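User: For my dataset I need records formatted as: sequence, then structure tokens, nothing else. Please produce one.
Assistant:
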Amino acid sequence: MSAWLTRSEQYFDSTFPLVVIRNSHHSKTSLHRHEFYELVYIDHGVSLHSHEGQTQILTAGDLFLVLPGEVHSYISTNNTGLYNCLFKAEAFAGMEQDIAALDELGWLLKGRGSERLDRVHAGTALRQQIVLDLEQIGWEKSNQPIGWQLKCKLLLLDLFVVYARLLGSRRQETQETGANFRQILKAVAYIEQHFDQEITVEEIARAAGLSAGYLSRQFRHYLGTSPSEYARNFRMAKAAELLCQNDLSVADVARSLGFHDTTLFSRQFRQVTGISPTGYRKSRTEQPAKPD
């Protein structure tokens, strides 16, 4: 399926190549790519997101950066509200050395080097800071008081720092907590290997060598969600991939995921993605509409 190219002139005026768009009720979009950068913050709700062919479930507190030329789409949304911070390289001109000094963000200047989307999850306090920065950028751009362009640059740099710290914190915790994090990775691996079954938290905990209560606390600490939510979301992401195969019926997809009741599968898919399996398949086979 082809991906539309979203051009800079659709969003930027001649004053400054940075804009924040708040979507209180974000809708699905077709595959597209940009000439510019897009920093995305999920404010509320759930969205099924595709990035360079990989499907992920996005939830409130998620923050990620899409680079120019990368193909992505919002396959479906469920009461999703988000902020899009769109900017060109000129928006951080003069700050390249500062950005390069942020070890976790070196790829912003030279390219990602992999197809993996570096999504991070912000806690409550950081969520407030992220929203304040984004709202302030919007206010500065709209009202243009003295020094507004410099202020926008500084706010953008602050968002970069928040993003880099979250990336760094995740890496540091992975290194420092050693055995604990390895056990969480065991739990994740077990979930992803058994997506075709209905598994319990107790089964996941046994596979990781932890108690169910401790696993749940540590899982939420590291990944921002519960083991059961992660298992459900991963299962539905797999369902979305299988539904793209037109030779499989919805019932076939349900059975391949371990559902004995197609109605139950359809209900869970809609709960997570906000769309029925049939509606999702139809949306993926139709000619894509140009994104807004």
